[in-house]
Every structure is written in C-alpha cells, then in structure tokens.
C-alpha cells in the first residue's frame, strides 16, 4: 500500500488528508504529537494516524464501510472492457484490419498502469 499522503483543503478551508482516494478530517493531535484523522464519510469509522509533520502514515485503523472514490479504478475497468470488446468485434473484419486494430488495442491497453 502506498503510504504517501496528500494534504488538501476542504470546501470550508479545513485541512484534509487524501490517502488511497479516501479523505480524512482531522480529529485531534495526540499527546505524542501525532495526528489522528477520521474518514470523511459519516457512516465510516476508518481512521489513520500521521506523524507530527503530517507527511507520513503511522497507523491505519479499521476498514472503510464504503467503496473508495477511485475514479482511476473505474476508468481502468472501462478501458479494459473496451479493449476486450474491440478484440471480439475484430473477428468479422479483414486480417490486416484486425492486426492493426489489435496493435492499437494493445498500445491502448498497455498504457494503463496496473
Ligand atoms: Zn471511509
């Protein structure tokens, strides 16, 4: 898991932590200087602890009760489906077309990082 965090501003100007497509709001600063953050989804109790500089994750507590806001994930899925479908459609077209098409498909598919 990628443990690098991103600090963002909420609409209200509060600091939020962005980690793995989930946003966390600041809960409190612990006695040891670490910061506790809670998922911004109201029904979710997943929380994280960052170091005092808010640069790295110290601890991840609990599981999210919802899907992550993973746009990238969704886009990858759509792209993958498109690649599959196009390859299947190629059966009825002429060989040169299929090859060209598949080459384009493979280029398109390979640019997507998994
Ligand atoms: Zn959550």
TrEMBL record:
<dbReference type="GO" id="GO:0008270">
    <property type="term" value="F:zinc ion binding"/>
</dbReference>
<protein>
    <recommendedName>
        <fullName>FLYWCH-type domain-containing protein</fullName>
    </recommendedName>
</protein>
<keyword id="KW-0479">Metal-binding</keyword>
<feature type="domain" description="FLYWCH-type">
    <location>
        <begin position="8"/>
        <end position="66"/>
    </location>
</feature>
<keyword id="KW-0862">Zinc</keyword>
<dbReference type="Pfam" id="PF04500">
    <property type="entry name" value="FLYWCH"/>
</dbReference>
<keyword id="KW-0863">Zinc-finger</keyword>
<dbReference type="InterPro" id="IPR007588">
    <property type="entry name" value="Znf_FLYWCH"/>
</dbReference>
């Amino acid at each position: 898991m990628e443990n690098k965090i991103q600090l963002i501003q909420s609409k209200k100007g509060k600091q939020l932590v962005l980690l793995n497509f989930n946003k966390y709001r600041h809960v409190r600063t612990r006695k040891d200087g670490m910061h506790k953050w809670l998922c911004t989804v109201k029904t979710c109790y997943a929380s994280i602890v960052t170091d005092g500089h808010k640069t790295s994750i110290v601890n991840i507590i609990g599981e999210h009760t919802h899907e992550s806001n993973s746009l990238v994930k969704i886009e990858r899925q759509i792209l993958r489906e498109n690649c599959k479908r196009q390859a299947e459609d190629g059966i009825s077209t002429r060989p040169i077309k299929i090859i060209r098409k598949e080459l384009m498909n493979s280029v398109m598919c390979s640019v997507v990082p998994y």
